Amino acid sequence: MEPKYKRILLKLSGEALAGDKKFGLNYDVITDICRSIKKCADLGVQIGIVVGGGNFWRGRESGGMDRTRADHMGMLATTINALAIADVLESLGVEVRVQTAITMQQVAEPYIRNRAIRHLEKHRVVIFGCGTGNPFFSTDTAAALRAVEIEAEVFFKATMVDGVYDKDPHRYPDAVKYETLTYSEVLAKGLAVMDSTAATLCKDNGMSMLVFNMERPDNIYDAIMGQDVGTLIK
Ligand code: UDP
Predict the structure, then answer these.
(1) Distance 168 CA to ligand 1 centre (A)
(2) Which end of the chain is more exposed for a tag (fewer CB within 10 A), N or C?
(3) Whose C-alpha lies nearest to ligand 1, atom 9?
(4) ipTM of the complex
(5) Is residue 155 part of a domain?
(6) Where in the sequence is the domain holding 106, given as residue range(s)?
C-alpha cells in the first residue's frame, strides 16, 4: 500500500516523551514512537519533526520569572528532546539531522530551510529544535511555521487525546469528539487544541492538521497510510 502523504511535519509534545511520570524522558516510550517513525521513513515518507519541551519546562508556567528568560529555558528543553529522539532514531538505523532555531553549532546544525529540504529529499528525518527561536511563541506555532516552510502536505499533531473534543474529555465524560473542523471553528469556539497563533498561521497558509493520540504510537503510521485517526482540521 502507498502512503497517503509524501512529506509531513510531525509535532510531538514534550509530555508524549515522558511516559507516566510526566517529567523527563522515558526511553521505552520514545523507542515506541521512533519505531513508528522508522516504519514511515522506510516507506519513503519525508519527515520533519518539531518537538515540545513541556516534559522539562514551559516558559508560561514559570511563575515570577522574566518571561523571555523562561522561554529561553523552554527552547533549550526542546533541544534536549530533539537530541534524545535523534539518538533513538539513529540507534534504529534512521538517518537524522537536528537543526536548531537558536544556533549552537557544536550541538546541532543551525536551522536553514533549504538545507532542511535537501535533508528531507535525501530521506533524512529532520528534527527542529528551539521552536521558532523567539520567546512568547509555542512549539505548536513553530510546527505550523516549519510545516509551511518545508511545504509539508500536512501537519500531524500528536497529543495525549485521540482528537479534538468540544470540552476536555479527561474531565467531562460527555465530551463529544469532532471528526473534522475548520480553523475558523477552532478560533471561534476557543477550542484548546492549539494556540491561536498556530491556528491562524495554518489557516492563512492552507495547512491542514491531523490531531491524534500518541499513546498509541502506531497512529503515526496509520495516519500516514490515510486511515481514520483523530480529527482533521482544514
Ligand atoms: N518556546 C519558545 N518559543 C518557541 C517555542 C517554544 O519560547 O518558539 C519555549 C516556551 O517557553 C515553551 C517551551 O519552549 O513553553 C516548551 O514548548 P511548548 O510549551 O510548546 O512544549 P509542549 O507543551 O508542546 O511540550
Answers:
(1) 21
(2) N
(3) 74
(4) 0.98
(5) yes
(6) 7-233
